[in-house]
Amino acid sequence: MGPMRVFGEALNTLNIEIKFISATSTLKPVRTSHQVEITPHYTIENAPKLDLFFIPGGSGTRGLSLNEELIDLVRTRVRESTWCMSVCTGASILAKTGSIDGYKATTNKSAFQWVASHGPNVDWVKKARWVQDGKFVTSAGVSAGTDAALYVVSELASYEIAEKVSVNMEYTWHKIAGEDPFADMYEYTRS
């Protein structure tokens, strides 16, 4: 939800319209693992072409990463998008599409090995809060996702706008992607 705050912030001059897309063919409200209820605007089948296709993470990605029909639909949405961003284990879905094969990417450090297993041809970066490679921006956990969203705003609007959004949120923006204190906490990502 951190990135949604960044993208929806009134000071963000990108004039972003946030639309939620259901991973199923229904528009029934979904309760996240953090007890936030979201009502989708579109299904994955009928969503319009998106400038920024955002793939969230969380425990639900474990089952979704095994759904080949969904992966095919996501692959189409990724291909159509101008930018594509994932947070946390959302990178497992993105990796399964094959869209980031040959690209640099990162994910949540506590689930890094599991996510990386979904994309053996991805150049996984173990020590990074976020990584931008081409149109793809991938990030570690939710706070790193907020950092990555601010980075996207700085690229698409301006650094000054991203800074204003960060200050208005009273959020300390980690502006250097490679400064990742969490990488050394886990054996698989330790340098």
TrEMBL record:
DJ-1/PfpI domain mapped to chain residues: 9-153
Pfam families (alphabetical): DJ-1_PfpI
Protein name, per record: DJ-1/PfpI domain-containing protein
Taxonomic source organism: Dissophora globulifera
